[in-house]
Amino acid sequence: MKPLLIILLCIVGLYFFKTYYLDAETKSETEVSKSSTPEKASKLPVDIYIAQEVNQGSTILATGTVVPNEEVELKSEASGRLVKLNLREGSYVKKGQLIAKINDEDLTAQLKKLKYEAEFAAQNEARQKKLLDIDAISKEEYDIAVNQVNTLGADKEFLEVQLEKTSVVAPFSGILGLKNISEGAYITPNVIIANLVQTNPAKIDFNIPEKYASKITIGQKISCSLDGDEEVIEATVIAIDPKIDEDLRTLKVRAKTSNPKGKLLPGMFTKVEIPLGKEKAIMIPSEAIIPILKGKKIFVMENGKAKEVIIKTGLRTDTQVAVEEGLMVGDSVVVSALMSVKKGLPIMSKASQN
User: Fold this and answer.
1) SS3 at position 192
2) Which option is the CATH number for 104-165: 1.10.260.40, 1.10.287.470, 2.40.50.140, 1.10.10.10?
3) CA nearest to 237, candidates 58, 72, 60
4) 8 Å CB contact between 287 and 321
5) How far is CA 70 from the centre of its chain?
6) pLDDT per position as a tens digit, 21-75
7) How far apart are CA 254 and CA 205, in angstroms?
8) Helices (H), strands (E): how many in the chain?
């Protein structure tokens, strides 16, 4: 009986020794191990950019379209058979040069008849005047003769105008487009003979956001370039649309530039840069900005933790963006590990880690 009791006491003693002594020792070693780990090892290392205010040259980037200085569809004011077509496609014509001529034989014959009648009426008026001077006729008879002269003169002027409408001339100097008809065709005022385009000088139309409407003025210099061409072309703002596009919230602007070599063709796409001068702005790297549903946000480091800040941006360069609202000078902006950074997450600068 006694040996059995002794064995049971030994087993209970070993159990309590393992439970309280060994487990306590293991726990103590774990706590020591944790206390020996640096606190900063639990923080996410990130790159930090200190926000600062700089004098930034403001430039608006826009896309533009080349439009001709003048453009018109050449049409005849009269109907008839086309008897002459002085149109070489793609050729340069001067203002007033004859482009097309409509058959005018009937009008010419009527005008010739009117000239004879006008000459006879003038001679009759002269005879009536002499008779009136000697009281051989009444004043009423003389007035009838004068009225005949005036009426025929008006009819003559009308026919001359109609005759002039049978000629289609260039209203300005420019380049002819492709012809749509051939000589001998019967045309009406609805038929387009060809297009006439003046490409020197050339105009450039572009749109800018409405918030910059007050910063652009007539006479302002801009620069533009074509795709695949490094040449920078200078232009001058000549007109500003008096209203904002309600759908796009943009303002339409037109500039003009010389185009002696015909390099700028109507309809071409251009990249436009509009300098607005220098102004102070808080600039941050563009990679620090995170697009969200209602705008844009960034993370800043505050008291060792990540803080989410909603910002409003302005002009941008190739590498930086101006922050108009939400950021103060001196704020520590997080510019790396943005996929891992969360609101309230402990973070630290890589510079301080090193």
Assistant:
1) strand
2) 1.10.287.470
3) 60
4) no
5) 20
6) 444 444 444 443 444 344 445 889 999 999 888 876 667 889 999 999 999 999 9
7) 5
8) 5, 20
